Amino acid sequence: MVDQARIRVALFKNEHHPTISEQILIDPRMEKEELLNLCSEKLGIRAKKIFNEAGVLLNSFGNLSDGAHLYISQGENFQVAISESNQAKQSKKYVIAMLGAAAVGKSAVTMRYVSNKFVRDYDPTIENYYTKTTQIEGEPTVISILDTAGMEDYYPLIDDWIDKKDGFVLVYSVDVPDSLNRLKYFHEKILHRYSHQGNKGPVIVMAANKVDLPTRNISAEEGRKFAENLGVRHIEVSAATSAGIDEVFASIVKELRSRRIVDRPSKKEPWYKKCTLL
């Protein structure tokens, strides 16, 4: 297969409320059996059917777009909650990437937001997609989150991680002093990638994790000043207690929506309202 023809898709088990996914690269021209074999290997199931987000059974994949979500069945019919499926079709999906050094809690923050669970011990993966359907300011919202590894061995993948994203969460841990300064690298990579978009680029938020700890090596003031120098919002969070977690993701969506409203063309006054009566 030709690499340039490949697209990235997220695989979910065909469950009522699927959250955890496996990300793979596929060629849309591939045969159904070949993709079923890949799905079986990635999800650890015997894949027999492939559905899209609307619950449509797929036999070919030429119309799939990059970032598509696929739901994999072992033979049963589409199980995803209908309300979530309708919300996915009616609302814009926001794609957000988590970036930061290793062991700062990127996965813990992600899992707390997606499933409201605190995962203390997490087996790190290179990258993984999660999804959540929620309400933000009363509007149905679908958020797709790319959780990434923080080990420097995987830094060559950063260009792929930051491509085609609506927002970024730069995570550091208040008990790991160097984790704050390491965010400069990720921030510079994002700015370089989206320099041509100006104010229409992705929204970046900085999250100070583990603020529940009794002692900290990075003060709140240090974090705020660092974020101010980068020109991004700073939010203190705790994956353990859930403090600030919802605010991180909601703030990104709200900012993106506010830009959409500002960019919306205003209605011009009819010419006759501009006339002055003599």
Automatic annotation (TrEMBL):
A GO CC term attached to the entry: membrane
Any one Gene Ontology BP term: intracellular signal transduction
Organismal lineage: Eukaryota, Sar, Alveolata, Ciliophora, Postciliodesmatophora
Highest taxon listed in the record's lineage: Eukaryota
UniProt xrefs under NCBIfam families: small_GTP
Domain KHA: 8-90
PANTHER family: RAS, DI-RAS, AND RHEB FAMILY MEMBERS OF SMALL GTPASE SUPERFAMILY (PTHR24070)
A GO MF label: GTPase activity
Keywords assigned by UniProt, alphabetized: GTP-binding, Nucleotide-binding
Protein name: KHA domain-containing protein
Organism from which the protein derives: Blepharisma stoltei
